[in-house]
Amino acid sequence: SGHGDDVVSLSIPDEPVVIEFSHDGDSNFYVWSLDTGLNTIDLLVNEIGTYSGTRLMQAAESEVVKGLEIGADGNWTYEIRRLSLEPNRSCPVVGTGDSVMLLPRFEAAAGTATITHDGGSNFYIWAWSGTDRDLLVNEIGVYSGTVLVSEGYSTWEIGADGMWTIDC
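Now predict its structure.
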């Protein structure tokens, strides 16, 4: 945990992890993942005001995270967990905001997922299979549709500013 801008060193397992953030400020809150040379890897969070959400790190083989660059005007916290220890979810799933989940429904067979979102900003879903990923949804605002999900793509990363549903 901390307050304001900071650069944090991390020593985490060399495997996919879930990182949960919170921020209680009023202005921009951003978090970049950093490699061993302190070069940016991925913009994990970029929101205005309060924030609470979960993001995926180190899902790609080339992504070894050694630190975080945090920009904040308020208090922030983060918690890192092994992706492999996250609970399996079954459809239908309802959530709000940024989330990471395991959907074993797609582990052994392809299928479809009917997805909705009621927010006003960017809404996206990445589905991961090992180190490969597929962008299932990338829309602005309200969304409703059915997408094809390939076999093995059972780790899902959702970016949303509103409530979403997934039915498979």
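The radius of gyration is 16 Å.
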